Amino acid sequence: MLGFLKEPVVVTAKINVNLVALTVLGLISRLWGLCYPRAVVFDEVYYGQFVSLYMKRIFFVDDSGPPFGHMLLALGGYLGGFDGNFLWNRIGAEYSMNVPVWSLRLLPALAGALCVPLAYQILVELHFSHCAALGAALLILLENSLITQSRFMLLESILIFFILLAVLSYLKFYNLQKHSAFSGSWWFWLLLTGVACSCAVGVKYMGLFTYMLLLAIAGLHFWHMIGDQNLSNVSLLCHFLARGLALIIIPMGLYLSFFYVHLALLYRSGPHDQIMTSAFQASLEGGLARITQGQPLEVAYGSQITLRNVLGKPMQCWLHSHTNTYPIRYENGRGSSHQQQVTCYPFKDVNNWWIVKDPGMQQLVVSNPPRPVRHGHIVQLVHGITTRYLNTHDVAAPLSPHSQEVSCYIDYNISMPAQNLWRVEIVNRESDTDVWKTILSEVRFVHVNTSAVLKASGLSGASLPEWGYRQLEVVGEKLSKGYHQSMVWNVEEHRYGKSQEQKEREVELHSPTQMDISKNLSFMAKFTELQWKILTLKNEDTEHKYSSSALDWITMDTNIAYWLHPTSGAQIHLLGNVATWASANAAALVYLCLSLWYLLRRRRKIYDIPEDAWQLWMSAGSVCGGGWAVNYLPFFLMEKTLFLYHYLPAVTFQILLIPVVLQHLGDHLCRSVLLKSMFSALIVAWFSWVYFVYCTFSPLSYGQPALSPAELKALRWRDTWNILIRK
Description:
The protein has helices at residues 17-31, 44-55, 68-79, 101-125, 130-141, 144-150, 156-175, 177-180, 184-203, 207-226, 233-265, 278-282, 288-292, 502-509, 523-536, 550-554, 578-603, 611-632, 648-668, 673-702, 709-714, and strands at 303-309, 318-325, 340-345, 353-357, 378-383, 390-396, 404-408, 422-426, 443-447, 452-455, 472-473, 475-478, 489-496, 560-564, 571-574. The protein is of the alpha+beta class. Strands 2, 3, 6, 7, 10, 11 and 12 form a seven-stranded antiparallel beta sheet that branches. Helix 1 runs parallel beside helix 5 (130-141). The longest helix is centred in the middle third of the chain and has 33 residues, at 233-265. The chain starts with 16 loop residues before the first helix and ends in a 13-residue tail after the last helix.
C-alpha cells in the first residue's frame, strides 16, 4: 500500500534563464533607491491627493480617467499603513515620517520591472528568435524614460504593464488556437486578455487604444476562421461566443466592478461631490445627506422646497429671490417691469425656499393626507420669505433680451396682470402619472400663458450687475429653442409646510425636518452619473511650462523636470534614451518602406521573401507598428494639454519593432557570410551606443549622483531641453 514511498518524488521544471535574468535586472533597475528622493515628485502631488482621499474614504471625481489606477496606488498606501494625513500642495515638499514612500511607489515600480520580461515573451510569441527577444527586453530595460516614470507614484508604468500583458495573452491564445482550442490553457490566455484589457482601460482611457487594436486583430483572425472549411458552423459559433464573452462581456463587467469598489470605498462627502446631482450627494455620508436626511419623498401642495439647477456647471445654484426689484431702466436704456428680482444663487440661503401652492386654494400648508403633485399638474411657486408668486411675462430679461424676464409679482395697480401659473413636467418620468419626488425627479417648469421654460441662463453667461448682487440670471426660455440642462431643476431640501401664518412660516423655513424616507441611489444610477461626469467634466486647459505637442515627442525635442534638490544639483528629468528613440524612428520608417516595397512586388507576383516570413513580418507589424500608431496618432486630434509621458505607451511598441526589423534585415537582406558578420558587428556597436546613452543620462533618471553645473550643461544635448543649472 505504501510502495510508492520506495521511490523519491521528483518534480522537473523548465526554467528560462533568460526570462529569470531579465526579471531580476528589471526589478533591480526599478526598485534600487526607490525611496529617493523622499519628496513629492511632479504628478505625485496630483495622485497623492487621491490616495489621501481613499485613506479617509472621501468621495472625489478625477476627470483624467477611471478609478482602477488610483485604487492600485491607494493599495500601496494601505499596505504601508498610510493614514492619508499629508498636505499635497507643492512639488518638492519633503514627505513626513507617516508617509510610506517605498510602499506608495512599489506597485508602479513592480509594473515597470515586469514590462522587461513581457517584452521578451511578446517577441518569442511572435515567433522571432530568442536573440531578438532578448534585445527587445534589454532595450526596455535600458530605456531612461520608462525607468523614471516607473519609479514614482504615477500611472503610466501600470498602464504599459497591462497593455503588454494583454498583447502577450492574446498572442499565446492565438498560438494555441490550431492545436489546443478550448483547452484549459486556451481559455486561460483568452480570459486573461480580456481582464488585462479591462485593467488597462481602468487605469487610463489611453488603454482603449490597445484594446481596440486587439479587438480588430481578433476580428480579423475570426474572419479568416470563417473561411476554414474544416470548422463546422457549431464550432464557429462556439469560437465567436467564447471571444465575445472573454473580450467584451467580462471586460465590461470588470470595468463596472472598478467603479463598484470605488464607490463602496468612498462613501463620505467631500469637496468634489458638489458637482454631482443632489441625489448622488444625498447618498454620501455627511454633507448634503445630513441636511436631507429624513425629508419627505413626495412633493405635495403646500411643500416648502429649494430648487437646484441640474446643470451644476460652472457652479451649482438654487432658484432665489429677495426684496430688491429690477431697475426701471437698464444701462443700455431698455426698461424692465420693476418687479421683484428672481435669480440663481450659488449658496444655500433662506431666500432659496419656495412653497408649492395649488392655484385653486389659498392655503400654504400640506393637507392631511398630503396631495402629491404629479407630472402635468399646474402649480404656483410662492417665495417663502416675501410670499410673492413666481412670474414671467413678455418683458425682455436683463442680460438675455431675446428671453422673458422672470420675477416675483408685485401688483402696482397697472395694466400688468399676474402670470404665475406653471406646469410641472418631470423629465425623467417613467409614466405620465409619476409623482414629483424630492431629489430624484428632474423637472421643468413650463409657463402656462407663454409656454416659456424656467431657465438658469446665468450658468452659461455673465452674472447680473451690482443691482443684482452679481447673482446669476434666470429667464423664461421659449420651448422652441430646444432642451438644455439649465432648464431642468430638482428639489434638494424639502419639508411639509405646517404654518399658515407668515411669521411662524419664516421660523419653520429656518428649521430642519425629521421624516424618515430613504432616497438611496442604485449602483447603476451612481455609476452612470459618475461615468458621465468623468467623460464631460474638463478642467480648463492651461499652458504648462513642460507641456508639448505630439510632434515634439518623436524627435524628443522636449523633456520634463520632475524634481530638483533644494541645495545641490541633483535632479530628475523625464528624458528618453536618445539612441533608442532615434533607432525606433528609423525602424518604423524601414518597416513602412519595406512593407510598401513588398506589397508592390507581390502585386506583380514577385515574392522576395518566403510566405511564412511575409506572414511573420505582417503579424509583427500589426502588433508593434499598430500598437505605436493607435497609441500615438489619436493625440493629434485631442484638444488637451499634452506631456511627454503620454507618448510612453506608443514608444514602447515602437521599441519592440527595432529587433523585428533587425532580425528581418539579417535573415533576408544580408545573404553572404561577410555581410552577416558586418551586420552583427554593427548591432554590437549600436547596442553599445544605447548602453552608453543610458549610463550618461542615468543621473537624471535616478536623481543621483548630484552633477556639477558643467556636467549638467554637457547633458543638454538639445537646446530645447530644460536642464536646470543653479547659478
